[in-house]
Design goal:
Largest sheet: 5 strands, antiparallel
Radius of gyration: 28 Å
Shape: globular
Strand content: 35-45%
Order of helices and strands: EEHHEHEHEEEEEEEEEEEEEEEE
Number of strands: 20
Number of helices: 4
Strand order of the largest sheet: 8-7-6-5-9
Structural class: mainly beta
Distance between the termini: 88 Å
């Protein structure tokens, strides 16, 4: 368009987009402004996992002031953690498991404080972020709030998450979605604050005529995404690899960090319907560069299976950052363990059938 230009002004950690239109046509005009944001999920590498130092992000805010209950819980969770990163991972995991995400939660600011959220054990991303920040500070780790856009898997929307200071670098943590040390590429930060990061979607117009905007709306979409290949490696296995129906087995996940960055995150075991996980399906791991960890879950196989029929199930675990490791598990009753044919001394054919009751329950077999 004639006379249309723009410039980007740096404002602290943010940027201001200034668009100029020196000779706009008359009448009502539709227009579109396209902004492409490039996000590298792995730009926030953690070379130093220890808690950083910044008094400005340790002071209590209106919404992030820790109550006595918040302090007590945070210090109990972080006790014995080998690094600040491990303490952060423990706190995020505890909040994810114990605070229910509830869109109906009151949006009254008085109900959004960290202490109130601890009492209610529910809230939206705002409340979850305030509680996480308060608990991180109570554990001696500087923290701040971030607000912006994120994709839920279905729609784009406004979202709040957090950042913690590890060493000299700010590292993102999204306790709502249990992303630790990284946030997925759809997280686009618009504002940061030690207590309550706020941003507004607005436009300001300066003109000498009657030019004005009747309405505007924002649309976001993913143009291109990459995978976590090469950033983290995971392998799934089972012990034993073949089990009778209704019997327990161990699901094993080996996670390896081939990078120069510390990595923390959840590993979530996902099983088909009918299988039962003993304990929590989510486990937290913290890996230093080039380290490896083995995680395991006790699982009970699906109980219903037709005798003599073999079933193969594919199950696995999702690790951070969103890498899936899976393998096949065989479920079979296994009454017949082996069949052999041979000739006896008189030259007659003899069939030998070996039976095994793998179910551990009385079973009848016809020979």
């Amino acid at each position: 368009a004639c006379g249309l230009g723009h410039e980007i002004l740096e404002q602290g950690e943010g940027r201001l987009l200034v668009i100029t239109w020196t000779d706009p046509p008359a009448g009502t005009l539709p227009y579109e402004i396209e902004i492409v944001v490039s996000r590298d999920v792995f730009s926030s590498t953690v070379s130093d996992p220890t808690a950083g130092s910044d008094d400005g992000f340790m002071k209590p805010g209106t919404l992030t002031k820790p109550s006595a209950a918040v302090k007590k819980q945070a210090q109990a969770i972080a006790k014995g953690a080998g690094t600040g990163l491990e303490a952060v991972a423990r706190i995020a995991a505890w909040i994810h498991a114990n605070v229910e995400y509830d869109l109906a939660y009151s949006q009254d600011k008085a109900d959004k404080t960290a202490g109130k959220v601890m009492e209610a054990r529910r809230g939206t991303c705002d409340e979850i972020s305030h509680l996480f920040i308060a608990m991180a500070r109570a554990a001696g780790i500087p923290a701040r709030e971030v607000s912006g856009l994120a994709y839920t898997g279905a729609v784009w929307g406004f979202h709040s998450w957090s950042e913690v200071l590890l060493g000299s670098r700010w590292v993102p943590v999204d306790a709502t979605n249990l992303q630790i040390g990284w946030v997925d590429a759809t997280h686009v930060a618009f504002a940061r604050d030690f207590d309550d990061a706020k941003f507004t979607q607005s436009m300001e117009f300066m003109s000498t005529g009657t030019f004005k905007v009747l309405s505007h709306e924002m649309d976001a979409r993913i143009m291109k995404a990459s995978t976590a290949k090469g950033r983290i490696e995971a392998k799934m296995s089972y012990d034993p690899a073949s089990v009778p129906p209704g019997q327990p087995f161990t699901a094993k996940l080996s996670v390896e960090n081939p990078t120069l960055s510390w990595i923390a995150g959840p590993a979530r075991l996902v099983v088909p319907e009918g299988f039962a996980i003993e304990g929590d399906a989510i486990q937290i791991f913290v890996l230093q560069p080039h380290a490896k960890v083995d995680l395991s879950w006790k699982v009970r196989a699906i109980a219903t299976a037709e005798p003599g029929v073999t079933y193969t199930y594919r199950m696995g675990a999702v690790t951070s950052p969103q890498l899936v490791a899976d393998a096949d598990l065989v479920v079979a009753s296994g009454i017949i363990a082996g069949v052999d044919a041979l000739l006896d001394g008189a030259g007659a054919a003899v069939t030998s059938v070996t039976l095994k009751n793998a179910l551990g329950e009385p079973a009848a077999a016809r020979v």
